[in-house]
Amino acid sequence: MSIPFVDLPAQHADQQDEYLRAIAEVVGSGHFAGGPAVERFEREFAAYCGTKFAIGVGSGTEALWLSLIAAGVGEGDEVITVANGFIATAEAIAFAKADPVLVDVDETTLTMDPQAFEAAISPRTKAVIPVHLYGGTADMEAIVKIARKHGIKVIEDAAQAHGARRGGTRTGNLGDIGCFSFYPGKNLGAFGDAGAVTTNDELLNERVRMLREHGQEEKNRHQMIGWNSRMDAIQGAVLSIKLRHLDDWNAHRRMIAEAYREALSATGRVILPAEREGEFHVQHVYAIRIPSRDRVMSQLASEGITTSIHYPVPIHLQEAFGHLGHGEGSFPVSEKAASMLLSLPIHPQMNAEQARNVAEMLKRALKVTAAA
Ligand SMILES: *Cc1c(COP(=O)(O)O)cnc(C)c1O
User: Fold this and answer.
1) Residue 370: pLDDT band by 50, 70, 90 thresholds?
2) Among 138, 275, 333, 367, which has the minimal tally of Cβ within 10 Å of its Cβ?
3) pLDDT tens-digit profile of 205-231?
4) Does residue 241 sit in helix, strand or coil?
5) Alpha helices, DSSP H only, in the chain?
6) 296 close to 362: Cβ distance less than 8 angstroms
7) Which numbered atom of ligand 1 lies nearest the CA of 182?
């Protein structure tokens, strides 16, 4: 048995003809950078998230970066985010010329600890970026409440959580700005790099639109220094098709997660991912925490099960952010998790039987390493 970590060719096989027709249409239209296919996807994605606006951009990293600039973040400002996420969030803050301020996460959800956020606020804090990690959601009610009290903008990093909800509200609509990635392996993935910004705020919408196109207000009138971060028309066309399948794919991911939970919940040495009351988790990554992670991982690899680690080195211990001056022990929850995390295969092309097989092999590998 061999189970890949993701299987994009299998995902695309089902709608192959539809994708090729849509791409042919773009080729025939002559509009490749932005244009009608992107505008259409923007309308559909805004409607999906429940926001007034969605702006297509070049990647999730650029969505974060341009959102920060649009929110007025710049030199001398601080932006608070988590120590345990993907490095893009902190990079975007640094590229906006602001100082990233890292905080630790909640032990159960591994998302931003609201108390740690509040404790990190200084007179220079301009924005906070909670990360909706693994398809779960950060504690937005608490975070937004604290942010409002201090006049801080809330930017969601929703790159791993397309379609996730808290109560009835989808990610991208839980703060002031939402940032999405459509990197191919995400729950909603393009045929290359792409991203989007969502907001209900007219001014932020206008500013992000200008920033992604050289700060242009109208052709050849540059109101601010911007960048080129247009979404490709081919990506817009592909994403419009895929968006119609997103809810089904997310439901399938949840079914796989449930199969894992049933098979593993009685296994004492495994910490399983949690779904909080009122939360709709979209299971982008199924990250468990186990002892002897590295040995279990290689044992599974030898049996054809590809696993991964999200993420083995927290941001504050990366050389790139060494200048922040945090040593080992600075963010104990993030650090301990990093040493124990193992992501099991989860994607819409897997079935529950395969998940049960992975779980059985995992249990065997845990016994072998416990005995060793
Ligand atoms: C993927 C990802 C990003 C970056 O998105 P790109 O489209 O790859 O630039 C940012 N934040 C998180 C949490 C991600 O998972």
Assistant:
1) confident
2) 367
3) 999 999 999 999 889 999 999 999 999
4) helix
5) 8-13, 16-29, 36-49, 60-70, 88-95, 114-120, 140-150, 202-211, 233-264, 293-302, 332-340, 352-371
6) yes
7) 7
Residue written as tokens 């970590």?
A: 5
Give dist(CA 140, CA 154) in Å, integer.
9
Tell me the CA–centroid distance for residue 64 and ligand 1, in Å.
9
What are the contacts of 98-101 at 24+ separation with CB within 8 A?
98/68, 98/73, 98/74, 98/126, 98/127, 99/124, 100/315, 100/321, 100/324, 101/125
278-301 pLDDT, tens per residue? 999 999 999 999 999 999 999 999
* pLDDT for residue 372: 66
Tell me which amino acid residue 20 is. Answer: L
- Checking 330-333 for CB contacts under 8 A at 24+ apart, the result is 330/83, 330/102, 331/83, 331/84, 331/102, 331/103, 331/104, 331/105, 332/104, 333/84, 333/104, 333/105, 333/106, 333/107, 333/110, 333/113
| Whether residue 49 has pLDDT greater than 90 | yes
- Tell me how far the alpha carbon of residue 337 lies from the centroid of ligand 1, in angstroms: 20
Q: Ligand 1: distance of its center to the CA of 59 in Å?
A: 8
| Distance of alpha carbon 152 from alpha carbon 124, whole angstroms | 10
Best mutation site among 156, 181, 191, 315 for ligand 1, i.e. most ligand atoms within 8 A of its Cβ? Answer: 181
Residue 174, CA distances (Å) to 84, 129, 130, 146, 232 in order: 21, 12, 11, 14, 27
Residues with CB under 6 A from ligand 1: 59-61, 85-86, 88-89, 131, 157, 159-160, 181, 183, 193, 195
* Structure tokens belonging to residue 327: 């040593």
Task: Report d(CA 62, CA 24) in Å as an integer.
Answer: 27
pLDDT in tens, 304-355: 999 999 999 999 999 999 999 999 999 999 999 999 999 999 999 999 999 9
Digit-coded pLDDT (tens) for 134-185: 999 999 999 999 999 999 999 999 999 999 999 999 999 999 999 999 999 9
| Residue nearest (by alpha carbon) to ligand 1 atom 2 | 159
